[in-house]
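Hi support team,

I submitted a single chain yesterday and got back a structure, but I'm not sure I'm reading the token output correctly. Could someone confirm the output below corresponds to the sequence I sent? I've pasted both exactly as they appear in my results page.

Thanks,
R.
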Amino acid sequence: MVDYYITLELESDATFSRGDGIVGMLNQEVQHDEYGCPYISGKTLKGLLVASCAEIMMSLKKMNQDAAWCEPAGRLFGKAGSSEVGQALMHVGDAKLPSDLRQALLYDWVEYKKMRPEEILDTMTAIRSQTKIDEETQAAANGSLRSDRVILKGMYFEAVLVFDDKPQKEELELLSACVKATCRAGSNVSRGRGKLATNFFDDKKKSILEKYFNKFKEEVLS
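Hi R., thanks for writing in. Yes, this is the structure output for that exact sequence:
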């Protein structure tokens, strides 16, 4: 097995919803663990990469360049309805806070009880409220007020990508393009939320995003 890494830095507030809220308080709660540390689940992150890959493949098809990349895409993300042979080479882990920050927060909670989980969550998030304006009265429409928790701009997450076998050059090139294309995520992206700065690292934590993305462009445009 070989480990690679993806990092995501929030360039705007973001809501990665866990699918529920808090009655009478929140319409959407963000994903967070039992210690109050926000994170992005591996399932969510893989879904973002798959969506980016689908858009890239659609563009390549218009250029009659998709055939060469179908196999790398299938090996990275798996093939729908496939047998064990067609399963994904890559497994995506949860995107978590930097390990040193997370360990410091957990140490404060587990050892000293300085900060409770809800206090840890509050330091990295905020509540944003919005309402719909009635076009006739120009006042807030009845029942339209909603409040969502957001993870604050500037937060940084890291996820491990575990490969069953060493990935081939074409797979790293396509994956770099997918990482590059994953620049928005979460709820209310049309309202400016969820802007991301992403990066891609090898097993030695050296950035390889530009190296392989540039090779991808050369292959496509050649």
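A quick pointer for reading it: The chain has a mean pLDDT of 85. Let us know if anything else looks off.

Best,
Support desk
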